[in-house]
Each structure stands twice: as C-alpha cells, then as structure tokens.
Design brief:
Number of helices: 32
Largest sheet: 11 strands, mixed
Structural class: alpha+beta
Oligomer: single chain
Shape: elongated
Number of domains: 4
Radius of gyration: 34 Å
Distance between the termini: 49 Å
Length: 859
C-alpha cells in the first residue's frame, strides 16, 4: 500500500510540477543562447563600428551580388538533385514540377527557421504527398539526406584542412600537425563509411526507426551533390567577402565547420553561431566590418530570397496561374494540399519583416535621404513615422502567429499593417528596400487569401511561451543594435526629448523604446488575462438529456439543440439547459433557457458568470420580450434584432380579401403541377437524397455554406426526428420545408426550407400555405415562420445608434441582404409579429456577438 501511495505521490508531483516546467525549458535555453551570442558579438564588435558595416554593404557591386545569386541557384539545384536521387533510391517517384517545389520550398523553410530536417520533412510530406508519397517514405528520404549531408560536410572540411592546413593553423592558432590530423580523420571516416556500404540497399536501424540505406553508388552520388551544394553556398559567401590572404580552399574548410556548428546549435539557419564561427576563424585576415557586411548580404541572398521565391511559387500555384503550365496534376484537387503550406511561409516572412522594421527603427536613417524628406515633410511626420513603423513591426511579430494558424482576422490585420508599414517606411527615411519587401508581402497575402479561412478572432488567440520568447529576443537584439549603431553618442537622460531632423539617435531610441513597451504590454496582457476556457462538444449523454427536456415542453424552436453544433449548460436540477457556442471570447447562447421557467434566472446568471470567469463576453441571441427583466437583472445590454412571424393557426383561413394572394398561389400552383406531401420521420432516410439534391442546388446558386447555430441545417442527425413537407412539380421534387415540433403538439417552427431554381414562382407560397393548413388540421395552435431581421426598428428621437444604423440597413441594405423582401413575403400570411432581442455584456459585446452568429456555419 505504501509503495502504491508513493507512486501516486510521484505521479502527482510529475503532473503538477515537472510537466508544466518543461514548457519553460526551451525558452530558457533560447534566452541563454541569445545572451551568450550577444556577449560574443559585443566582444567581436570592439574592432569595428556600424558605419564601417554600412559602408561595406553599400560598396558591394552589382557584379558581386549577381555572382552570389548564381552560386545560390546552383546550390539549390544540387538540393533538388539530392531529393531526386534520394527518392529514386527508395523506389519513389514524383513529377518534376512537384520535385522542384518540394525540394526548394522544404530547403528554404528549413534553412530559415532551423531544425532543417524536421521542418523540411513536414513541407515535403505535404508536397510529395500530392504525388502519393507517404509519410514513411518522406521520413526515409529525410534520414538519408541528413546523414549524407553530414558525411559530405565532414569530408569537405577535412579536405580543406589538408589542403590549406598552414593557413588555417595561422588563423585559428592551432598547431599545423593538429589541423592536419583532424583533417585526415575527417576524410577517413566518411570514406570508410561509404566503402563499407554494400552495392545494394541494406536495412538500417536507428533506435526504433528502420529504413533502407541506399547502395554505395547512390550514397556516393549524394555526397557529390552535397559537395556541389556546399561549394556553391560557400562561393556565394566567398564572392561577397573582400580580398583576403586566405584562399578558397581554406575558406571552404572554415565555412564547412561553421555550417556544422550552426546545424548543431539548432538556431534558425545557424543564426549567430555561424557568423561568430566565421568571424572568429577569419580573425584579422578580413576586416570585421567587411566580414559582417558580407554575412548580412549572404543571409539576404541565400536564406531570405529563396524563402520569398518559395512563397511566391506557392502563391502562383494557389492562383492557378502556373498550374496547368507546370503539370496537369497541379490543376487537380491535390494542389490544395500543396498550397496549404502558404500560411507557414507567409508567417515566417511576416515575422522576418516585423524583425526588419523593429531593427530598422533602432538604426540611423541615411542623412541624404533625411535631407530630401526635410524639404517636403514636417518634423513630426518623420518622427512619428519611425516610431509607428517600429510599432507596426511589433504587431507583425504577433500577427505572424495568427497567420500560422490560418486565421482570417490575422490576414486582414497583416494586409493593413503591411500597407501602413509601406507608407511609414518611405516617410521615416525613404527606406526603399523595406518598402519593396512590404510590397512583396502584400502581393503574397492577396494571392493566398483563400488559405486563411478560419473565422476566429486574432485577439483571442493565446500566444505560446516560445513565441513570446522569440519576440523578447527580437527586442533585446534591437536594443543591442541601437547601442552598437550609436556607440559614439553620449547618452544622457534628456536625450529622449531632443527633436530635430539630424537627431537620429533620440529618434531611434524613442522608436525602439515604443516597440519594447508595446511588445511588453501585449505580452503581459496575454500572460495575465484569464484562460479562454475550452468548450467540449455535447456528449451523447448530454444530447439525450437535452432531447428529453425539449420533448417535454412546448417551444418547438428548442429542437435546434439537437443539431449537435452547440454545447449545453444544465441547471443544478438537470431539468433545464442553455445551448450555446463559444468563438474566441464570445459566449453566445441561443434563445431563452429551455425548461421550467423557475430555473431560467439560475441558468442566465450561471452562464454570465462562466463567461466572465474566462474573461469573455456573454450574449443571448433571439430572446423573447417576456424574459427581458431576467437579462436586465443580470446586467446585460438589450438590443432589438427584429421580429418573428407567428401564425395563429386557429384563426388561419383562406377566406377574405387579406388571403386572396394565398388562394391565388394555391390555384396557380395547382395549374403548374405542384403537389405537397408530408414525409414523416420514419421515411426521412428514403427522402433524404431528394432533399439533398434540392439543397445542393440552392446552396450553389447562392454560393453559401450550410449554416448552423440559430438556423436549422440539412444534416441526417438533425432531420432524423423531424417531419418535412415535400413539394413536387409534375412528379419531380422541387422544394421542401422541414418543421420542428415537440410532444406537446401545440406549436411548430419552420426549419430548413429550400427550392430548385427552376421551380414554379409560386412554389414557396404554395408550400407554406399547405403546411399551415396541414398543421391546423392536425391540431397545432401556432406556426413560426422565423424572424425578419431588423424589422420594426424605428429611429425615434431617443433611439440608440444601433437602431439608427439598423434602420438604414433596413431601408438601403438590399444589396447585402433582402431584409424588406423577407418581411414582405412573410407578411402575405398575415402573421403576428413578436419582437426578438439580443442581450449581451460589454461595450462591444452586442456587435461582436452578432459577428459570431453571422459567421456560424457547420464544419
């Protein structure tokens, strides 16, 4: 017994302390690595200054940049060749265009964000999966290319050490025999491993993973392609370096070792580790300022540019502009799997551009460009532009997280921020390079708009600790760059309040400080706000209990609870419930509580408390007038939504002048061949294909999806217990309407109603008239035709702003929704109009709740 209790104590300790603490281990390691790299950078920066780096960057000629671009292209062609050889060695085959997209996109993203093998594998799974290549095959390809890359990198480093041992020995202050010995060992190990391989593929087991290690020839080809890849990548940096006494062979050895250290460090693209290793190894052979400038240019050409090209390629495929030209397969449905990678690339690019704007705000603008701006812009415009541009950069860092999750709100925010950033980049100092990148981002976002299709609020998405740590690192690095760029400025307490066109240091300090304060404010808001709360879908037990409560009461619209798209909150006695949905921080309940009237107050108060406990807003949609005191007592605001049309079936007759239109609709429908029939729940499964055909045509004609929440949907689960009236025209099904009822058999509510486009113009009037007469004959007392939105909102002298806006939409919003036409159609039946309201908390709660209801649809 004691052993069991001790084991339970250890399990509790692990669950409450060890498991949560693991979340903070990677961020702490990242912060430690950042601090170490900044210390190294601080020591290295003592021998050069910001102006020397800027001068070296501006001195790079067009010819040098073109050579680096050509070497980069050769390197990526070798990467494509490595994927082709690897796929062939394991018996897989993909179209050439798919191979180019997968290898280029996977390598570019892996280089940019780090963990290249895992990141690239995820991309290749999605791209090569369009050609039928499975996850296990991609995993084998990843393992083969990673191992052969390591072999090739070690081999190249060893060859360089043997051929340029004297130069390397002088640079790194290691005895030449040691360098030669290390080089010989680095050559001997890969050669021995390649020679030990068989002529054919053999099974290779690493831990629990087993793959087919390719034959000697395929491995040798892979190593040769790795050599071409590394040689070309080394050339792209070599040509950017100024003339130095070290030859290319010795430089290649240094480059290989630095790249290996960057891979081991697992920073994004080896950032920081690679640069520190190169600068340390080159020592005094190359001026540090020129070396830093070359490394910055190399990052832009070899890392950022391929990432932009990959994102652009996916965007073009998304736009279908090149789909047919590349291969017919790309024009087919599998292309969707490939273009779903676009949000990942856009998130990385957006984050990188956010970093660029924050860092740019910490560096001085060109004096000549400021002089041009001084002639046309006031000082406050330049000052405000630099500060706001840094804030826009911080916002892009946060928005990138939403883009990664494919949120539509994040897409809109990214577009608006990119447009604003473009203008601010020009106004703060004519930063044409920044403006060009922002313009590229705007184009890519517009081209991939369809991929951001998740209707969720950006503000309600909780950021991870890792993401917040990344933003903190960006701010810390920006401050380091600020003090590095203005090292010669005498810092004082009043520096921040100096304003002039030539006072670039105070302007940069204000911009970086504003970025830091803004980032800290958002981060603290994210960390300190209440948990959003998770809402589980209704369980079968909850659905069964809700069904019993619904059947035992009279309100027929409560049958919407059986759709399965809403969660339930039950009263303490389990005799009443609320049905609701949660979107972001909005908790929206549909209708009044269902069940005994005495338990409504408890449910309303409990729902409001639950929403507020999670930092959310509570709302009740389409509540009735007799329940308004309960919502006012709960502290909610009321807003009229419209009026519901209810027919009193006891008084429903076709005689009289008021019903002349309905009598004509019945006669005209009879001449057009219309016949109505009741489909009971027992026969609904047989009639469902006909109903589905009518519904699909109706939805396609209006370019709509199946709605949910407050509107009945055509789903088998929803229709299983509901009857319907089916309308045939000359024997062909052309329209239908379901109606919801309870065991009380006192009232009914129209559910799903659809018609074919070519049905008789009088089909819906015919259908509803026949339905009302049938329900009257069956003994029902009322029929609800549904709500007419915005009906009955008159703008009186003391009317709220919502009433005034709603009245304008009612009168002039016909292009958005046929408000008046819907009211006019239902008025033909001479119903009683009952008001329906929205009760919500918060200043913007009513409008946000309406946006949730408007966007509600079935998945």
């Amino acid at each position: 017994m004691q052993t069991t209790e001790a084991a339970l104590d250890r399990l509790r300790w692990r669950r409450h302390w060890i498991v949560p603490a693991r979340r903070f281990v990677p961020p702490l390691i990242a912060l430690g690595a950042c601090a170490l790299l900044l210390l190294v950078a601080q020591n290295l920066s003592q021998s050069f200054d910001y102006h020397s780096v800027k001068h070296a960057l501006r001195s790079l000629g067009t010819g040098v940049i073109l050579q680096a671009l050509a070497a980069t292209i050769i390197s990526y062609l070798a990467l494509i060749g490595r994927d082709a050889v690897g796929l062939r060695s394991i018996g897989a085959c993909v179209p050439r265009s798919t191979l180019v997209v997968g290898a280029t996109a996977g390598s570019a993203l892996g280089n940019a964000v780090g963990f290249g093998a895992l990141t690239g594998a995820a991309v290749r799974c999605r791209v090569y999966g369009t050609a039928g290549v499975g996850t296990a095959t991609v995993a084998q390809l990843t393992l083969i290319t990673a191992l052969t890359f390591g072999l090739g990198l070690v081999l190249l480093g060893g060859v360089g050490a043997l051929l340029a041992g004297a130069t390397i020995s002088d640079l790194v202050a290691i005895p030449r025999p040691v360098v030669t010995g290390l080089g010989a060992a680095a050559v001997a190990v890969p050669v021995a491993l390649i020679a030990a391989g068989g002529a054919k593929a053999i099974p290779l087991k690493l831990w629990r993973f087993v793959c087919q290690w390719p034959g000697r020839r395929a491995v040798l080809v892979q190593v040769v392609l790795v050599a071409i890849d590394v040689l070309a990548a080394g050339v792209s940096l070599w040509v950017l370096m100024p003339d130095a006494p070290i030859g290319f062979v010795g430089f290649l050895s240094i480059y290989s070792v630095a790249m290996l250290l960057g891979v081991i460090g697992h920073t994004p693209g080896g950032l920081g580790v690679f640069e520190a290793a190169v600068i340390f190894a080159l020592g005094s052979a190359v001026p540090p300022g020129a070396a830093v400038a070359a490394l910055l240019a190399y990052r832009a050409i070899y890392f950022i540019l391929p990432l932009l090209v990959s994102a652009g390629l996916l965007a073009f495929v998304e736009a279908r502009g090149l789909a047919i030209r590349l291969t017919p397969r790309l024009a087919e449905r599998p292309t969707r799997r490939m273009t779903q990678l676009a949000p990942v690339y856009l998130a990385v690019i957006t984050f990188a551009i956010g970093v660029m704007l924050v860092v740019s705000g910490a560096t001085p603008a060109f004096q000549t460009r400021l002089a041009i701006l001084q002639a046309g812009l006031p000082l406050w415009a330049v000052e405000g532009s630099q500060l706001l541009a840094s804030v826009v950069g911080v916002l892009l860092l946060f928005v990138a997280h939403g883009l990664l999750r494919r949120l539509d709100a994040a897409w809109w925010m990214a577009v608006m921020l990119a447009v604003a950033g473009l203008g601010l980049s020009l106004a703060k100092g004519l930063a044409f390079f920044e403006a060009g990148l922002l313009a590229c981002l705007i184009v890519l976002l517009i081209a991939t708009h369809r991929r951001f299709d998740r209707p969720a609020s950006l503000l309600h998405q909780r950021l991870t600790v890792g993401w917040l740590t990344s933003i903190a690192i960006v701010i810390v690095v920006a401050f380091w760059i600020l003090f590095f760029a203005f090292r010669d400025v005498p810092w004082s307490h009043d520096l921040c309040w100096q304003f002039a066109f030539d006072e670039r240091a105070p302007r940069a300090l204000r911009a970086t400080g504003a970025a830091a304060l803004f980032a800290a404010g958002i981060a603290f808001w994210q960390l300190l706000r209440p948990a959003a709360g998770r809402v589980a879908p209704p369980s079968p037990t909850d659905l069964a209990l809700a069904a019993r409560i619904v059947r035992a009461q009279e309100r027929s619209d409560a049958v919407l609870a059986m759709m399965g798209d809403k969660s339930f909150l039950f009263s303490a006695s389990r005799r009443a419930f609320l049905m609701y949905v949660k979107r972001g921080r909005c908790w929206v309940a549909l209708h009044d509580p269902v069940g005994p009237a005495g338990e409504r107050r408890e449910l309303i108060a409990g729902f409001v408390a639950m929403a507020h406990r999670h930092g959310g807003r509570a709302a009740f949609y389409q509540v009735r007038a007799e329940s308004l005191p309960l919502y006012l007592d709960a502290g909610l605001k009321l807003m009229k939504l419209g009026e519901e049309a209810r027919l009193s079936l006891a008084d429903f007759e076709l005689s009289g002048a008021a019903r002349a239109g309905l009598r004509y609709a019945l006669k005209r429908g009879g001449r057009d061949g219309l016949v109505a029939e009741i489909v009971p729940p027992a026969l609904m499964a047989d009639a469902l294909p006909a109903l589905r055909a009518i519904s699909d045509g109706w939805l396609q004609g209006r370019r709509m999806r199946e709605k949910g929440f407050s509107v009945a949907a055509l789903t088998p689960d929803n229709l299983g217990a509901q009857p319907a009236m089916l309308l045939r025209q000359n024997g062909r099904p052309v329209a239908f309407a379901t109606f919801m009822t309870t065991e009380a058999r006192t009232e009914a509510t129209v559910g799903v109603m659809r018609r074919c486009p070519d049905a008789s113009a009088y089909s819906m009037e015919f259908l509803f008239t026949r339905l009302a007469l049938h329900l009257k004959e069956t003994g029902y007392s009322s029929l609800s035709l549904g709500m007419a939105p915005l009906a009955g909102l008159e703008p009186g002298p003391l009317a709220s702003h919502w009433h005034r806006v709603a009245h304008l939409l009612w009168r002039h919003g016909g292009r958005i929704y046929n408000f008046r036409g819907l009211r006019a159609f239902k008025s033909k039946f001479d119903p009683v109009w009952e008001p329906r309201y929205l009760a919500a908390s918060g200043t913007f709660g009513p409008l946000l709740s309406l946006s949730v209801v408007a966007g509600a649809s079935l998945p």
